[in-house]
Amino acid sequence: MLVIRDVPAPEPSSGEVLVRVVASALNRADLLQRLGKYPAPPGAPANIPGIEFAGEVVEVGSGVPPSRIGQRVFGIAGGGAHSEFLVAHERAVAVIPECLSWIEAAAVPEAFVTAHDALWVQAALRPCERVLIHAVGSGVGLAAVQLVRAIGAVPFGTARTQEKIDRARELGLEDGLAVGGDLSPLAPAVEAWTAHHGVDVVLDLAGGPYVGASLAVLALRGRLLLVGSVAGRRAEIDLGLAISRRVRMTGTVLRARPLEEKISTIRAFESEVVPLLATGAVVPVIDSVYDLDSIVEAHERLESNATFGKVVIRVASDASNTSLE
Ligand SMILES: NC(=O)c1ccc[n+]([C@@H]2O[C@H](COP(=O)([O-])OP(=O)(O)OC[C@H]3O[C@@H](n4cnc5c(N)ncnc54)[C@H](OP(=O)(O)O)[C@@H]3O)[C@@H](O)[C@H]2O)c1
User: What average pLDDT score do residues 229-233 get?
Assistant: First the structure.
């Protein structure tokens, strides 16, 4: 059950900043946490969901320069982002480019950090490689499409409606397939898209039967990134294919990483993705915006699976101001 109540603001420890959260966004993790299926990791507030934020530094802990007060920052959190204040390690936040409003900034961290870390860092994506993104109309999926293009590779995708495929094309998707419940048209589609080469990387945001279907369309030495399991936690795979094609399968999660890893993930995002956001080469995709008071409706919207991009939560009254106001 979701209720809004007053609790004491956290205090920044050494090396931390206190952030006044201006806007946040919603994630599957929040839905699962509400259902009691995904508890917050140790150190995160147990009963305040929210794993990404955009806000203003209002206080610093010892060892953090006071000049950081007033800085606009965004980042990911173990929890506690659907609240007015949170604490974060000063190195685990990135500075928001001036061109992004608070609402736009809040739509960035989970989607772009996850896609960047999976594709650019872990899969070591190279120019001209072909990438298949399942659930391409999701927040992570649409960030992935743009980051694949930004590195000079070619994105393909699946979704369960043609409308999401068509809309994703406007963000750079080369081609896509509306799959419904039947994944058998995927192999001939990938053959046609890639002239029988197969895809070099799959970003699997769906899981379940998509895992086996992905393996079947991977090129030699392909990389399969397992990121989400909305379509199921179990998969049947052909080990002969995996072995003979020398496939690399990598599972990944951001939330449970130790602080040092989160810091290096955010630092890589800040140096490689934030400049692209600053020039508009990649853009946050916003499905809808809800006030924190309407958090129940926001959860319902994400649960509907009708979203295209991010569901943003307006936490503070100045959230709709642009960065220049
Ligand atoms: N490992 C990590 O660190 C990490 C971080 C962020 C997100 N994730 C995961 O990555 C995935 C994408 O996250 P997101 O926040 O971008 O998602 P999102 O915006 O909530 O979109 C998820 C989409 O998945 C599709 N979907 C839902 N149920 C499905 C099913 N049974 N079969 C096939 N497709 C289904 C729906 O689109 P269609 O209508 O097009 O099917 C839905 O809109 C989620 O699974 C999420 O849990 C993982």
Answer: 97
Taking only the tens place, the pLDDT of each residue in 29-54 is 999 999 999 999 998 999 999 999 99
Instruction: Write down the pLDDT at residue 181.
Output: 86
Q: How far is CA 30 from CA 48, 52, 126, 161, 255, in A?
A: 9, 11, 33, 24, 12
Cβ 228 under 6 angstroms from ligand 1: yes
140 lines ligand 1 (CB under 6 A): yes
Per DSSP, the three-state class of 192 is: helix
pTM: 0.97
Q: Does the beta carbon of 302 lie inside 6 Å of ligand 1?
A: yes
Pocket probe mutation, ligand 1, options 31, 51, 138, max atoms within 8 Å of Cβ = 138
Supply the DSSP string of 76-88, one letter for each residue: E-SS--SSSEEEE
Domain chopping of the chain, boundaries: 16-108+257-320, 111-251
Q: Is 252 in the pocket of ligand 1 (CB under 6 A)?
A: yes
**What is the distance in angstroms between the CA of the first residue and the CA of the last residue of the chain?**
36
**Looking at ligand 1, which residue's alpha carbon is closest to its atom 39?**
160
Ligand 1 lined by 144 (C-beta under 6 Å): no
The per-residue pLDDT for range 62-114, each reduced to its tens digit, is 999 999 999 999 999 999 999 999 999 999 999 999 999 999 999 999 999 99
Judge whether residue 324 has pLDDT over 70.
Answer: no
Pick from 137, 19, 7, 105: nearest CA to 69: 19
CATH level 3 topology of 16-108+257-320:
Quinone Oxidoreductase; Chain A, domain 1 (3.90.180)
CATH class assigned to 111-251:
alpha beta
The token pair that represents 143 in the structure block: 């960030």
Assess whether the C-beta atom of 89 lies below 6 angstroms from ligand 1: no
